[in-house]
Description:
By secondary structure, this protein is an alpha/beta fold.
Amino acid sequence: MSIVVPTIVEAARGKGVIISNVIGSTAGGVIGSSSSSTVEVEGTPCVSITLASLPSVTLGAFYVAEGDLPDQAYEYGEEEWRKYLGDTMMMTGGKGGEESSPSLYSSFPPSVLLFPSASFQKYLDFFLNGLDLAYPSATKFGAVAGTVSSLSKDRLFIYNERKPDETTIMSGGVVGVTMRGDVSVKPMVAQGARGVGGTYRVVDGEGSTIKTIVLDIDDDDERQVEQGEEKEESLAGELMRQQMQNEEGMSRMVKPVLAEANMMMKRLGDEEQSFMKRALLIGVEQNFRGGGDGGGGGGGGFERLKEGKGHSYLVRQVVSAGMKDGSVTLPTGSVDVKEGQRIRFFVRDREGAKEELEALWTGYKKSALEKTFEMEEGESGLEPAAVMVIPTMDRGEKLFQKQGVETEIVNKAMGNDIPKFGFFANGVFCSIDSGGDGGVDSRDSTTCSFGSAGLHVVIGPRSGRGVWRGRKEASSEEEEQGGGGERVFGVGGTEAAPRDPEGELVVKRREIQAGRAIEVSTVAWSVAEKTARPTSRLEEFMWEKETEVDRLRERNPLANILSNCKAYMMKPENAKTRDWVGAIKAHLGEEKGNFLVIPECKRSEPNVGALRKRYAVDKLAKEFKAGGAVALSVNSDGIMFGGSLEDITTAKEACPSLPILASDLVLYPYQLYMLRMAGADAVNLVAAACSAKDLLYLGKIAKSIGLGVCVTVNSKVQVENIAKVGIGVDAVLVSNREWEDFTIDQTGGRALEVLRSQEMKDFIGKLPETVVLIEGGVGGVGGGGYLEDAKKECAVGGILGSALVEGGGVKLEEGGIRL
Ligand SMILES: O=C(O)c1ccccc1NCC(=O)[C@H](O)[C@H](O)COP(=O)(O)O
């Protein structure tokens, strides 16, 4: 792995794709999609790599060693777990770790993917229970590392772009990734088990121990009639039931579980008997709340699964039996048996496992279709982008007698264009729905682990936006171009983004790409054709921002926001903004020649990821103030930088005396009103993303509601343009960022070229009152960066984000930086 991971990272870089994080594990076999097929490989050393590009999703990779688990965690409650996991897994956010900001996707619960090592398994249920307590609404899923041979040892690995020379390989613990934002994850489990014999009710049982049961003949029949289930059970099954009734003299004799299992087993076929002798599987009815009818039992086949309602029973293997009282005990904590709850005996076999998989996917498709009918206009559902398939190592060829059966069934249901990936694991686990729409029905979305099962996870954007179908597009483009190579611009592509004759990026607003416009009440908006692809990271950012604002408008139309903003500004405490540029100018004065640092609160950096384990805006703002900051920049963009409007409000509450520049991609007046109400004092307009008309228009509206106006430029052409437009700019922010891919040149080359240009000299000559600041890598690597050179030009200060936030403290004196 120490060779494989850097090789992948390097190869991707060669294609213009920057990989920020890699996590993975050894496995008992791998599953992956090539351009023409999906393959399952078992028993042979090989590697399966999955590259994911998840727009509008904030990822946080983490590693927890066994030794990092807190000693007292067994006594932990919800709050303690939340704090511990929030720190460990970067599940930070608003109150209680769940972000409560008004940004588009922040209200959605996160998803957590975990790969525990085999040695971590003993802590797994405990760890998952902690996760359930701390983040009940988060979807958790994952699989335990495996190995191809029993002689080899399992390993986990994690790579972070910021430590490119290291791929950390671990022999224990758990690696994982948290995903927040426009991502939806739908885990489903195939338990690989089929019910045999009748249905029973627990007479005496508690926790994970079942002592006595009674045959539930009448109720079982009634239920099937009630649920309109056709009695699909075989004639043999029916005969067996009758025989049982006869043998029992129609009585409902209460019997110890083991005694009943022994009696029932005798009536089974040879194969089923031999299975039951090796392993006693018991299915415990789901959704049973005690008292009357639980509503989750019944059905010997997979009728409920086919309906997309989830499994009727959660199947567990008996781990110990009371030889004296005939009781059985299931894995501790895996079930909580109640009196009156239904149970069944289960066996595993090939046909049953196949039937179950088919039922699972039929159910998924049925409920997905039903959801589209239930959705209100404007609402969107999960758009499948990929399916993760993780069978346990006892499945695959061992169970189905040939390789590839599991993915073949997924392909049949979802088509070949959707990539499938995964591996053979030592166990799987996932959150399971209580409502049941394809998953296993369970108690309040708990995370259940399975020693033998197939975990299938549909992953895609929750906004339902179009998904790039690599396989489909590659083949159709090849066809179009007579079998020629792929033509992909900009981001992750093989071609550079389009530029005009002056070298400026050509970006379009999303509407230009639109195929149709939809009218909904007073709001009209356009929908990007699914075929349109952004040609640069900036264009992609713009389109996503436009979609974000569309969605916000759907919930709260512009007219409302406008009147809310007016009402807000009527309140005396909100009538005036604080003068952001004024505060900077006031501190230049006699100290001119010095360089003023404006610290930026920023949660993450696009090509890097989260900058701090614990990002607390209030704490950070206070730190900056204590360090002498006279003004702040707060990044409120949630698409690229993980911020939110609430971050501005929080910073303002923490430091009421510090004026705030809202660092965001502003494309609409709507955003200006929202930013004003969040507590911003100034905004920045990105020159490359706005036409001259937009700049003027947005600038005027910003001023009309008291917001200071900065314009961000990264080329001399843009400087010349803003001078021509004559927009009243308070400050020019010279960005050192390349907007094609959002990289930052640590030498400051890009910003220095602009600062040294004739265009900039002309601009300052014409508008000497304008403050010139630099941004992007000003903290540099190892301190001063390109600051000294910038100071020699017209820059009087700089916005500093990553270096301060990531540094874990304010190191203001280093590299000549002073506040
Ligand atoms: O650069 C943009 O296009 C942009 C758009 C919307 C919000 C923020 C934007 N840029 C912010 C930055 O470039 C940096 O966060 C800021 O300059 C600090 O840089 P660094 O010190 O390198 O973290």
